[in-house]
Amino acid sequence: MKLASFSVKDPRLTQRNPPHQVPLVAASSFVFDSIEQGINIFDGVEAGHIYGRFGNPTVDAAADKIAQLEGFGGDFETYGLFCASGMAAISTVLLGLCETGDTILTQEDLYGGTSSLIDTLAPRGISRVTADLRDSERLEDKLAENEGFCIVYVETPSNPTLRCTDLDYLADLTHHYGALLIVDNTFATPVVQQPLLSGADIVIHSTTKYLNGHGTGVAGAIVCRDKDLLEQKFRPIYQLYGGSGNPWDAWLVLNGLKTLPLRMERHSRNAAAVTHYLLEHSRVKSVNYPGIPGHPDCSAIDKQMKLHGGMLSFELEGGIDQAKAFMNRLKFCTLTPTLGDVDSLVLHPATMSHRSIPREIRLRNGITDGLIRLSVGIEDVGDIIADLEQAIG
Ligand SMILES: *Cc1c(COP(=O)(O)O)cnc(C)c1O
To answer: What pLDDT, in 10s, does the model give residues 168-219?
Structure first.
């Protein structure tokens, strides 16, 4: 008796009325109905799947959906790859684009993992130059000074200080110097901001965060406008370095994406209310949130962000000691090192997400020892504020 229960001719595989939801295809390989068909699919003459690491219907559906969301409303096509993690997406892009002698221009206050990843490229002759990407004069000087820039890599809003960079301007400048602009859009999501519509070339995501939205899986995605770039530079790395995503995580993300616009609206509304509460509190020293009126980056924010998102950070009077006491007193919000879930999450950047960044660089970028990051959830905002109130004391 054959252990595999489906034959290619099995009516359950070729049914005429498909399932309403994208099925979770848990299979490591795909069957050819003849050797000729197998050869055609390998040659790319006929469409079809081969082996799970190269593609899978559920995984491809998630990649396409994220690509469509990032390009929605634009007059160009978009193409996506669904990856094993946000870091797999970032490493695929960096390894695909950068060669020995190349330089990456980026900001100092990057996601810690991305910053450490760029460190690992140094022995391969790929260097990094940092600048405040919001400071146009210094930026132009840096670009003019260095010949070998292959990419400009930006996170906006930045983590955890929510600084925002003007993407239209950065894209024009990057292209003027013959480089590509890569945007990590994890914090904003395509509901809030679509970097490709501002001229960026590549968007990357940690779908672990808002796109999944429920804290149930680690995955990532790459989206770009240039199909040749994706096929020639990214797909080989994706397939050969083992960075492709798995169908279960893709299925979870597809499920999460159905409520993404609803969630982002509620995250944004709740975060605005929490910001308002914190700004009024006498024991709160400072608050970072893109929706604060008169934000220093408001021209970029107003131009490119449709909502202000669910992330904020703040500092209590009394610095690190008060911050620790506050975090230990929380009952409703959860102390955990992720973001973008439906429930409210708190993290201490200096000892968690940004622990690998030297202290002086952290301080230069506003990441003080007492800074607390809050990923505001979609619960009743009264419950969130009541917890903050009792924990601030
Ligand atoms: C979490 C995160 C990443 C890394 O993603 P993983 O899914 O954890 O690999 C990259 N960039 C940002 C902004 C993140 O928040």
So the answer is: 999 999 999 999 999 999 999 999 999 999 999 999 999 999 999 999 999 9
111 tagged catalytic: yes
Of 107, 112, 108, 87, whose CA–CA distance to 350 is shortest?
112
User: Going by CATH, does the domain composed of 20-257 fall within 3.60.20.10?
Assistant: no
The answer to whether the CB of 218 is under 6 A from ligand 1 is yes
Q: Is 373 in the pocket of ligand 1 (CB under 6 A)?
A: no
**Shortest-distance atom of ligand 1 to CA 187:** 13
Please name the residue whose Cα sits nearest to atom 7 of ligand 1.
86
pTM above threshold 0.85: yes
Cα separation values, 356 from 110, 187, 361, Å: 11, 20, 10
Of the residues 53, 269, 285, 324, only one is catalytic, namely 53
Class of 261-392 in CATH: alpha beta
Q: Is residue 209 annotated as a catalytic residue, yes or no? A: yes
Q: Which of the 8 DSSP states describes residue 203?
A: E
Q: Where exactly does CATH 3.40.640.10 map onto the chain? A: 20-257
Domain ranges in the chain with CATH number 3.90.1150.10 = 261-392
* Identity of the residue numbered 323: A
